[in-house]
Specification:
The chain is an alpha/beta fold. It has one domain: Rossmann fold, CATH 3.40.50.2300. The chain has helices at 2-23, 38-53, 77-84, 102-105, 114-123, 156-181, and strands at 26-32, 59-65, 108-111, 133-135. It has a four-stranded parallel beta sheet with strand order 2-1-3-4, with helices on both faces. The radius of gyration is 16 Å and the shape is globular.
Length: 183
């Protein structure tokens, strides 16, 4: 019975997400390896920024991983705790793997590090769509880091640092989108 209820809930959530994606002017996909640490945090941070700017209906945000290690799992408890300390709730997010269709469906495909960037570029067979694939920290050129480090095997300070980097790049991304799309 619980499985049936969960399947119905997941189906309804998927339908609502598809409707929101179809209505959005701009679509952004954040990508890390397993979609349980960095990319769901980026999704949560950016959604909060969009809500604050009144743009959550114009910009659709999602996250995914280049590997299927954690498909269907919620974000890492340490990511959730770090985000919650900054009033960002990640509990409803679930890990998924990047698909080839994502390259056509998203205007921005933002990798957290070079390894995942290379994986995305190799997966994307369409040279015209490859320009959508970038490093997320390219939107924070003032930072010395070019990659968001994977905090999975580190301590709590690593998750805090990841959150700081993501917040900086998210601000730059929002500025770029507002300028480019005049919203």
């Amino acid at each position: 019975m619980v499985r049936v209820f969960r399947a119905l809930f997941d189906f309804g959530r998927q339908r609502r997400q598809n409707e929101a994606k179809a209505k959005a002017m701009v679509r952004i996909l954040f990508v890390c390896m397993g979609n349980i640490c960095r990319s769901p945090v980026a999704e949560g941070v950016f959604r909060r920024m969009l809500e604050g700017a009144g743009l959550n209906e114009k910009i659709y945000v999602d996250s995914a991983g280049t590997h299927s290690y954690h498909t269907g799992a919620p974000p890492d408890p340490r990511s959730q705790a770090t985000a919650l300390r900054r009033d960002i709730d990640l509990r409803d997010l679930r890990a998924r793997r990047v698909t080839v269709a994502d390259f056509a469906q998203f205007d921005y495909v933002l990798a957290m590090d070079r390894e995942n960037l290379d994986h995305l570029l190799a997966l994307c067979g369409d040279p015209g769509l490859r320009r959508r694939i970038q490093l997320f920290l390219d939107y924070a050129p003032h930072l010395p880091e070019r990659e968001v480090p994977d905090p999975y095997y580190g301590g709590p300070n690593g998750f805090e640092r990841v959150m700081d980097l993501i917040e900086e790049a998210a601000e730059g991304l929002l500025v770029d989108i507002r300028r480019r799309y005049r919203i």
